[in-house]
Design a protein that fits this description.
Number of strands: 2
Largest sheet: 2 strands, antiparallel
Shape: globular
Distance between the termini: 77 Å
Mean pLDDT: 85
Structural class: mainly alpha
Strand order of the largest sheet: 1-2
Radius of gyration: 26 Å
Strand content: under 5%
Order of helices and strands: HEEHHHHHHHHHHHHH
């Protein structure tokens, strides 16, 4: 008897992924390679005259280090930290609060909708709103003066930490809702048996959170930290609109992407390419460090958290 020839459908899988790889190559890979290539060239416009492209090796990279790149990198890191620390703290507290069945919080869906709504507002609209609210003659200063709290307007946008504080506040308000939803989903995915064992032994909310919830959601925390860090390095629209692109006062709010945008606006493609490569390297190094610090041989943290839960179940009542 002749064996029936099998039908292979594998080729259809390759056909279906061709559009993705084609679009990725055209719109991502080729521009990436060109960016790296132009970073080794002197290529800019002086008035109506274009200079280059002339190959100059790593001169663009060295020039950036001699310029204000370290300062703008520090600004970017500070602005990210100001917004991220309260974001992760508030998100963890809200996630633990909403997922704790013993608290019996009413209106959870309403609160989850409200805290997520700022994430739906465009960053440009958010920045314009804060620019209007906190301007010298804005509603905030008017309200404070009418209540007698201050006698003259506070110049929020004319001080270093006033401007940085507003940028951090906007980033916090826009993203803490999204982070809360992610952490809630992570906590709700933990085996309820672990919580029940700890509750039966009389463990407090704090003990359950730090000994069970936090270790078990470590992969999601790692993802949140990495994506937030990448978003922080790409911070542009909020400080750009709030400071009208100047990074004032004294360029203390100038971020790396704003600096990159200035080079692109001046048609200095060589320096812009070198700065883009620096951003890629910084992002890769920071993400690798975070990944290594927050992940080990037990990728989901389940074994370690389960051991802690068993110890807590045996000692929880006596540890209080």
């Amino acid at each position: 008897m002749k064996k029936k020839k099998g039908v292979s459908y594998a080729k259809w899988g390759y056909i279906f992924i061709i559009p993705f790889f084609a679009s990725f190559t055209i719109f991502s890979l080729i521009p990436l390679v060109n960016t790296i290539r132009w970073s080794f060239f002197e290529y800019y416009r002086s008035g109506l005259k274009s200079i280059g492209p002339n190959f100059i090796g790593i001169s663009n990279y060295l020039e950036l280090l001699k310029a204000d790149l370290p300062k703008y990198a520090g600004n970017t890191f500070i602005l990210w930290i100001i917004g991220f620390i309260p974001q992760i703290i508030v998100s963890l507290v809200l996630a633990a609060w909403f997922t704790d069945v013993r608290l019996k919080v009413k209106g959870k869906q309403f609160f989850k909708t409200v805290i997520y709504m700022p994430n739906l507002i465009m960053a440009s609209a958010f920045a314009m709103l804060f620019f209007t609210l906190f301007s010298d003659g804005g509603p905030v200063n008017s309200a404070l003066m009418n209540m007698g709290v201050i006698h003259e307007p506070v110049r929020f946008l004319s001080t270093v930490w006033g401007t940085r504080g507003l940028i951090g506040l906007m980033n916090f308000l826009m993203w803490f809702g999204n982070t809360t939803i992610l952490l809630m989903a992570a906590i709700m995915g933990i085996d309820p048996v672990l919580f029940e064992a700890a509750q039966l032994d009389g463990c407090s909310h704090t003990q359950i959170f730090f000994k069970i919830s936090l270790p078990m959601i470590r992969p999601v925390l790692s993802y949140t930290l990495i994506t937030s860090m990448i978003g922080g390095l790409q911070m542009f629209d909020v400080p750009q609109i709030l400071t009208n692109g100047s990074g004032s006062p004294n360029r203390s709010s100038m971020t790396l992407i704003m600096y990159l945008n200035n080079h692109l606006a001046s048609k200095n493609y060589g320096m812009a390419g070198a700065l883009s490569v620096y951003l890629f390297i910084i992002s890769a190094i920071l993400c690798f460090i975070v990944y290594k610090l927050m992940n080990d041989d037990d990728p989901d943290g389940s074994k370690k958290a389960a051991k802690k839960a068993k110890k807590l179940a045996g000692k929880g009542g006596r540890a209080q």
